[in-house]
């Protein structure tokens, strides 16, 4: 009987394997259902057009800026240096020798094509992704600093610090992020830029008002996470540190915060993942982050299924990378 049981155990898949098969079967069913739905809508897929929204090459035409005659053409390392002489002036242009369109002694008028060259550029969605990452990194950095100090003020015995932190947290958490973004851009941004303009100073770009709104919004939630993490450490830790002669600030910095850091990493990761996704709201103030760039691409290409699907995958890639980084920090903090 034992031999039969051992044989069946080796032959039959384990329970975990069966559940993994169920998982992949569910994914396949979901993908197939999505495919069937698109077929019912008579939608024609154009995946071959997607790469141009990440990187593309464009033909740049080098045009004459003066009227005159081609005085000389010199070839150097595959390029052609064209010298055009006009009435008392001369200009020189460098173009690839293989794409040269003129010869010596040719007469040129303003705007005539001298040559062409290929220039590679980032596509619309790649640019939007870079802006999203830039905004998210800066907002996360400011949010951590603001949340840390606000969280410490939240548990402070100083009533001014404590109630200032409480007021800030409740106001920010009690109002929608979209409303805060609009206030920062249309109210605060207008006032600040008007003051700068009246003083003859350069104005602040809209991206920084978007970053400010995200940072302050995230800071309120980070503050509560920090407060909860600090209060989760037993009070005896602080009392033991004080008995060893440490000040309250030293005990907080060397004893409490390192322990709290390990506990608040998972909720912090969730908050920062939400911040990355919330950056999609900045499109309402004309910041071309990933979602706005995708909407513009859909408007010109009429490929909503492909582009929005790729947009979602790009957000997933960024948030998954952040999640893996936080898990790495968790493992390092335990070691």
Helix content: 55-70%
Give the termini separation: 46 Å
Rg, rounded, reads 30 Å
Total number of beta strands: 6
Quickly give the CATH architecture of the largest domain: Orthogonal Bundle
Q: Regions with pLDDT < 50 over 5+ consecutive residues?
A: none
How would you spell out the order of helices and strands? HHEEEEEEHHHHHHHH
Topology-level CATH name of the largest domain? MetI-like fold
Largest sheet: 4 strands, antiparallel
Strand order of the largest sheet: 4-3-2-5
Number of domains: 2
Question: Which structural class do you get from the secondary structure elements?
Answer: alpha+beta
* CATH homology superfamily name of the largest domain: MetI-like
Membrane topology: Multi-pass membrane protein
Pfam family, one: BPD_transp_1
Main location: membrane
GO molecular function: transmembrane transporter activity
Description:
This protein has 2 domains: 60-120, OB fold (Dihydrolipoamide Acetyltransferase, E2P) (Beta Barrel), CATH 2.40.50.100; 124-334, Orthogonal Bundle (MetI-like fold), CATH 1.10.3720. 64% of the residues lie in helices and 13% in strands. By secondary structure, the chain is of the alpha+beta class. The protein contains 10 helices and 6 strands; from the N terminus they run H-H-E-E-E-E-E-E-H-H-H-H-H-H-H-H. It starts with a helix and ends with a helix. The strands form 2 sheets. It has a 4-stranded antiparallel sheet, with no helix packed on it. The relative contact order is 0.10. The model has no long low-confidence stretch (mean pLDDT 86). The chain crosses the membrane at residues 18-37, 129-153, 165-187, 207-226, 307-329. InterPro entries: AA_ABC_transptr_permease_3TM, ArtM/GltK/GlnP/TcyL/YhdX-like, MetI-like, MetI-like_sf. Keywords: Amino-acid transport, Cell membrane, Membrane, Transmembrane, Transmembrane helix, Transport.
